[in-house]
């Protein structure tokens, strides 16, 4: 299957899921402990726009609840943008490997146009420093 077709197929799966309100109690009830299954989640702002896409695997501290509220300093609730999260969709993929989930996550991020708060695929370099070096190179070329 081609990448674009795969993105369409997975996107259709999410279209069938109703938006849920982000609520610590609701997420803990439905997406923690034994309910913490491997899957992909979309977080939405108040305008129902996707602002983050993530994955959770199988194992300790990897539930959707743990990722949002109990994953130490990596918990989304500790991020400055978390207050913008108003809704979510979660899709379990019970037979997916962690590698499968990583591929799905990356392709969904790509397919959704790099949601605002995803950093997969973003450059973490200090861009100002690169511009300074590039400009120095242009200056060097002018003096030749």
Task: Please characterize this protein's 3D structure.
The protein has 5 helices and 4 strands; from the N terminus they run H-E-H-E-E-H-E-H-H. 40% of the residues lie in helices and 15% in strands. Strands 1-4-2-3 form a 4-stranded antiparallel sheet, with helices on one face. The model has no long low-confidence stretch (mean pLDDT 85). The longest helix has 16 residues, at 127-142. It has helices spanning 3-15, 24-30, 64-70, 98-111, 127-142, and strands at 20-21, 39-44, 50-56, 87-92. By secondary structure, the protein is α+β, with helices and mostly antiparallel strands.
Low-confidence parts: none
Number of helices: 5
Helix content: 25-40%
Let me know the number of strands.
Answer: 4
Radius of gyration (Å): 19 Å
Proportion in β-strands: 5-15%
Q: What structural class is derived from the secondary structure elements?
A: alpha+beta
Kindly report the average pLDDT value: 85
Q: Which geometry do the CA atoms define?
A: globular
Order of the strands making up the biggest sheet:
1-4-2-3
Task: Identify the quaternary structure here.
Answer: single chain
Largest sheet: 4 strands, antiparallel
* H and E string: HEHEEHEHH
List keywords for this structure.
4-stranded antiparallel β-sheet; 144 residues; alpha+beta; 5 helices
State the gist of this model.
The chain is an alpha+beta fold and 144 residues long. It has helices spanning 3-15, 24-30, 64-70, 98-111, 127-142; strands at 20-21, 39-44, 50-56, 87-92.
């Amino acid at each position: 299957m081609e990448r674009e077709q795969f993105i369409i197929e997975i996107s259709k799966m999410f279209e069938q899921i109703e938006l849920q309100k982000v609520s610590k109690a609701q997420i803990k009830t439905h997406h923690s402990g034994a309910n913490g299954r491997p899957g992909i989640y979309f977080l939405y702002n108040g305008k129902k726009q996707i602002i983050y896409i993530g994955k959770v695997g199988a194992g300790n501290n990897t539930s959707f609840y743990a990722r949002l509220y109990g994953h130490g300093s990596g918990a989304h609730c500790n991020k400055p943008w978390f207050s913008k999260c108003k809704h979510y969709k979660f899709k379990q993929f019970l037979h997916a490997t962690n590698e499968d989930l990583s591929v799905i996550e990356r392709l969904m991020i790509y397919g959704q146009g790099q949601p605002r708060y995803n950093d997969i695929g973003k450059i973490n370099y200090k861009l100002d420093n690169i511009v300074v070096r590039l400009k120095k190179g242009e200056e060097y070329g002018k003096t030749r």
